[in-house]
Please model this.
Amino acid sequence: MNPQWNGRGVLSGRGLVKRYGEQYALAGVDIDIEAGEAVAIVGPSGSGKSSLLHVLAGILRPDSGEIHLGDERIDQFSEKRRSELRRREFGFVFQQGMLVAELTAEENVALPMLLGGAGRKQALTAAREWLARLGLGGREGSRPGELSGGQAQRVAIARALTHRPKVIFADEPTGALDSRTGKDTMNALLDAATEAGSSVLIVTHDRELAASLPRAVTIRDGRITTGVTVG
Ligand SMILES: Nc1ncnc2c1ncn2[C@@H]1O[C@H](COP(=O)(O)OP(=O)(O)OP(=O)(O)O)[C@@H](O)[C@H]1O
Model:
């Protein structure tokens, strides 16, 4: 085992391989995400960015390699345990907020806490606090269809953060927004993650956005080619 393994990162992957038939989506990736750190994953289309995010988040199981969350090796968890882990320890933000259209903003944000067993009052109070932090005080009762794209994405960010996850996984979180709204939304995500003490892993095509983060990792043909500190 790698001597640097223990305590290296809050989330660590070693030798990660993911294949689709003959196609290697990940061809042996090592990565460490430190506690509270924000990391961009960049690279051309089809290079393996989403596969890496999905494997690290326990959505996809790697064909080989290891994933550790703190002291726990999570890649060998059963489907049920991985699903619990995702709900308890991780938060997710996708390109489209994937909010529940029939629920209000605060109900959407409270949902993961309710599913995790929190009481309704506690969950709604936390939801309102996070919405206010994200500049959406007063919009608690709005349904997703009544919000702008940027506002809806802030609701999705609040939803990902309410339970103060160890790691937020964001797949092209600003991809559907214009560049100004995208920048504001990204800053809101980073500020809120800092507030929650969460690490953030952001998959993006946007090089400018990646360069604004403390660390950007480039992936090509399923391999990490650079992991330089850019700021
Ligand atoms: N479900 C799947 N079935 C077959 N091949 C897949 C599947 N998912 C991904 N791949 C292949 O694995 C490789 C990596 O895909 P991945 O989606 O991880 O790349 P990406 O960098 O996120 O791409 P993009 O930026 O276009 O979203 C690609 O060659 C892709 O065609």
